[in-house]
Amino acid sequence: MSPRVAREEDFERLAKVAELYYLEDLNQRKIAELLGVSPQKVYRMLKRAREIGIVEIRIRRSGEVDAELSQSLAEHFDLQNAVVVRTYSGTPEGVVKAVAQAAASFLRDNLVPYTSVGVAYGRTLHSVLEYLPRLDLHGIRVVQMMGGYGGRRWKTVAIELVKEFASRLGGEPVYLFAPAFAKSLETRDAFLSEKEVQEVLRMAEEVDVALVGIGGMRRETSLLIETGNFEEQEIEELVRRGAVGAICGTFFNIDGEVIMCDLDKKRIAVDVKRIRERGSRVIGIAGGMEKKEAILGALRGKWLTDLVTDAQVGRWLLSTARGK
User: Using N-to-C axis directions, what is the helix angle for 28-35 and 39-51, rounded to 10°?
Assistant: First the structure.
């Protein structure tokens, strides 16, 4: 084996270890098990990968916002604010982390004491908590805007999300103890007849700021589709009617128009359109090209006052809107 080939193989091996550690979030012991080497060997390989430039460590401040693209997007879609963040990883996980970091910085600068904050559920919103510092804002109330969905684990996570946001902001959590989608119209009516559920939904509709994810229609990228316990025919109906995305369980098409379907009649969640019509802020936090049509629909339908997304989606939105 020639020295050149050996060096190329070493390079690829170092790159693989770096990828597993920095992009796949595996720890050094797990990588060692996968490769059949010692953890000490993995440590030395990671160190060598940095030394020869395979890995470059960059400190990303405020998510490295693209100010020009952010301004153009805000002006074109008549948003109060658009925050468009550059990403260094094209993986869905990398995009989520970059958008979540930028969103956390945006919330830190825009949330004020004595306000009510509505929180929906989604992967990106959950990731925001990784970067959101403890702000301890006086008089904050955090309201769950949508019932839980999926199995017991996801319903618990939805409640924990509200609890953790309230803890970070220094406020009081308000929980919606109901499913996002009832099994039947009769079950939904039974939940909505409960005084406590009515009160929480009323509070959710009157929040000053709503934090929402924007779900797409792919199972692998939509937590709602993945865990919503939908029947296959229900999903097929949505696709047939032109659904591209959802906010708080309400599905809409590429123009932002609500898709009227059987699922909507069983939904237990706030009507985000009504929050918007009241003049409250609705901050959409979503990124990734797999969600580009959902984000475009939300913008065209005027569902949002503010948007945090990634640069690739931001450029596509502008290009599509300008007919290029």
Answer: 100
Question: How far is Cα 50 from Cα 292, in angstroms, rounded to an integer?
Answer: 34
Stretch (H or E) spanning 246: strand 245-247
Give the separation between CA 263 and CA 238, rounded to whole angstroms: 9
**Cα separation of 113 and 256, whole Å?**
32
Q: What is the pLDDT of residue 62?
A: 42
Residue 5 pLDDT: 39
Q: How far apart are CA 48 and CA 29, in angstroms?
A: 17
Q: Which residue has 């809107």 as its token pair?
A: 321
* Amino acid at residue number 118: G
Mean pLDDT by 10 residues, the chain (324 residues): 50 89 87 92 91 76 79 96 88 90 94 95 89 90 87 63 94 93 91 96 96 82 61 82 92 94 88 91 96 96 97 95 74
Residue with tokens 């959802």: 246
Amino acid in position 204: A
Type of residue found at 319: S
Q: Look at residue 32 in the predicted model and tell me its pLDDT.
A: 92
Q: How are the residues of the chain apportioned to helix, strand and coil, as percentages rounded to the nearest 5? A: 50, 15, 35
Taking CB atoms within 8 Å and a gap of at least 24, the contacts of 79-82 are 79/299, 79/304, 79/305, 79/306, 79/307, 80/281, 80/305, 80/306, 81/106, 81/110, 81/305, 81/306, 81/307, 82/306, 82/307, 82/308, 82/309, 82/314
Annotate 89-101 with DSSP letters as a single string: --SHHHHHHHHHH
